Amino acid sequence: xxxxxxxxxxxxxxxxxxxxxxxxxxxxxxxxxxxxxxxxxxxxxxxxxxxxxxxxxxxxxxxxxxxxxxxxxxxxxxxxxxxxxxxxxxxxxxxxxxxxxxxxxxxxxxxxxxxxxxxxxxxxxxxxxxxxxxxxxxxxxxxxxxxxxxxxxxxxxxxxxxxxxxxxxxxxx
Length: 173
Description:
alpha+beta, 2 domains, four-stranded antiparallel sheet, 16% strand
């Protein structure tokens, strides 16, 4: 009987731990992700650079556990901007997006950590800063849907493609 009670207690504790883990994820709305170290591309857009928010954004990036693998400040010409936003060519706002991203210097970064792509998208928030959660970078540093302060790759495939555009020599195989 003592052996049965010990086994029952171990099972009970294991079930409780699993329930607590998934309950936490449900309550905080955090997604369960794989444990894969990834790289993603981040761009601090001209509006945030002009407003002198680059340092604040980089500080938050590091506080969130990202490693900055590489970083550079550039002013994009139209052609690389069009390659960056190639998936938007048929959208009515494509030309305006290109005009904006080329309107001044941007800071382009390769960020690395576990689940970097999805976590970065969560950290920057929705495209419209007014609809973004208060703890997101776009809510804090963006002003409207076009001037939202930041860009982030939306998938691992896009991250690889976008990193190659700016850091061809730094892409992981």
